[in-house]
Amino acid sequence: MARLRRGLHRKPRSATGARAQALLAEDQASPAQEEIPTRYKSRVSTPPDIDTLKRLVGQSVPDLAAQPFARVRNAGTDNLIYKIGDAHALRVARRHEAIPSLAYREPVAMRSLKDLPLETPELVANGLTGMAESWPWLVCSWLEGESAEAVGHAFTETDAKRLALFLLDLQGQKRDFAAEPNIDNHWRGCPLVQRDAPTRGAIADVADDFDAIALAAIWKVALEAPPCLERDRTWIHGDLHAGNLLVKDEALSGVLDWGLSGLGDPASDLMAGFTLFEGAAQDAFWKASGISETVWRRARGWALSTSVIAYAFYRGTKTPIEKRSRKLLEDFSFSI
């Protein structure tokens, strides 16, 4: 290839400064890791202790009172997760920024979305702790399977078709109670133009690692695509990365973590065609999705925007999200 990425072998710059913090404030992607990254420490508060949570769950669902509670490792940045017995999960926010999603977005999605072709958690009970600082908690069904990211699952054409059909069904669900894009879901589903400044800023910040000209060209094409009309907005999941997808018997089986869900441009979910699939699987996803060139361009813009902002923030952390973002940005750097 004629064009090489500038500064490919340079040592990555730190992204822990004020500029990276400002970029991430516009769109935080969720890393699949157990410990809170150092840069988040100042925003973490102490959620209710496990005894309080057991008492609340027992009051709401007496049948679960005597079940064992086991902390789930690698639960993510936003929530603590406990497995209750064999069939249920308890989710509780572990930092203030995650409270709105757990209090509204997740339970509404679990109540509203029915008969989807992949497994999704079902709401059992939810509420507030009732303490001076009320923390939301939620009990849902436990889905069997393994994280696609944790097991390094290679997505197949069959997986791609399954996810495409899942998204088509999701987009056809009644949208009555779906929440609007807002800061609590990192503005997933909003018009791409609202992401212009942070995306261009992040592209500039990572220019020593990737071809900024190529990335800017992709972003320009996405912005020039006609925006999603109000009538075309649908339910979106908002966070379709491999850490939120389950596999059983080496096949895609379920979709977890609806904390960024709501109403928005379906292209913000269809970016999975770029972030999850390659080669024949990617072709199968686009064919099964049946989307227009316009939506495809916006989906590519979403993939670029979320990845470049995440990479600018997580660069050097050796986290799954850094790895995912780097891979896509490398691909995009050579795609123009």
Automatic annotation (TrEMBL):
Pfam families: APH. Residues 1-47 are annotated as: Disordered. It comes from the Bacteria. Residues 1-13 have a biased composition (Basic residues). This is Phosphotransferase. GO terms for molecular function: transferase activity. Residues 72-302 form the Aminoglycoside phosphotransferase domain. InterPro entries: AGP_Transferase (IPR051678), Aminoglycoside_PTrfase (IPR002575), Kinase-like_dom_sf (IPR011009). Keywords: Transferase.
